[in-house]
Structure formats: C-alpha cells, structure tokens
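Researcher: Good morning. I'm working through a list of sequences from a screen, and I'd like to move beyond sequence-only analysis. For each chain I'm collecting a predicted structure so we can compare shapes side by side. This is the next one on the list. No need for commentary yet; just the structure.
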Amino acid sequence: MKNSWVVFVILVGCSSSGSDAGGTSGRLENCNGMTTVLARGEGTTEGCIADEGEAVAVGCAGEALADSVQVCAEKDGQKYWGRAYGAVQMLDGFTACDDPQPELCSLSTCELPLTNYSSVCSLEDTKIQWRCGESDLDENCCKRATCSSNEDCGAEEHCDSVSTYAARNCFFNESGTCGCEGTLGGPQVMVCVPD
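Model: Good morning. Structure tokens for this chain:
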C-alpha cells in the first residue's frame, strides 16, 4: 500500500540515491524541487500522536493528486504520520508503513469517537482549525453528546443545534504550518452544550 502526504505539490525533478518512485523503498537525500512531506511522531504513550513537538521531514511528494492521502513513515522504530497531495518517496533512513493514523494523545481519551476528523498538527493548532468549543466538538476537541431535548443533557447544559464538518483532515504544509481539508458542510446536529 502506498502512502503519501503534504500540501501543494509540484513535480520538478529530484535527486535520488536509488529506487522506485512509489514510496516504499525510495531513498532521497533531499527533495530538490519536490514538496517536502512533514509528519509528527508517536507520543510518549504508545498508540497516539504527540500533541506537541517539531514536525519531521519524512519524504518528498510528486505526481499531484486531487485528494490528500495518508503517509506513514518509520525510522529507528519510531512511526510518523501525515498527509500529502502526491505519491511520496521516502527520505533516506525512512521506510513507508501502512499503520492507520492514530489520534493525538490528548484526544485518545475522548469518550466518543472522532469520526471524520484527523489531525497531526499540535493540539493548540487543532483546536483552532476544528473550532473546538464552537461546533459539535467541545473545548477539548471531543465529540459532544447528541440529544433530542434538554432532558438528555447534564446539569448546566442544554440541547442545541450546531454545525459540523463533512470531514476535517489537518496536517502540515511544506513550511510547517497547520492546514486542513474540509469545510463546514456536514449536517446540523443536536448536541449538549454548556448553558
């Protein structure tokens, strides 16, 4: 399975130290005009992505695609995840993997699954991009409980209609800035919100 990721892709040419352009065994020393793919690694807790820390260059993207695809890379036993708009060739020392992207560590404890949402950005940037606290996600970026009336909600909460995203994937562009795919366009949903 070929994985890939990053933001604006222009294929200009590359210098390679060998291999196929598919992304599993390619070894590049630098991207030379291709788009650098940045990813974030696992947190101190296994099975989640670190909430903070520098993004790591794991590969180079070319062959522009209309939709982004997940990138999973591994080096020295550490896994990294991101997304790209082109087929990715790994930088020297990284190998492609096909592990599904886990949640950010802070979001891995949410009671309700974050269906259609994914992020490898910092928790702070993710909160801004997902409009946490203003949508179907609470201030901690966890899904709010659905409801049909105020009686379904807890103390100091009421049932209200909020906007949702049809999908929201957040990842790094080549400069290391967090950007996201997806716009408000999902259905209005009734959820419990604070009074």
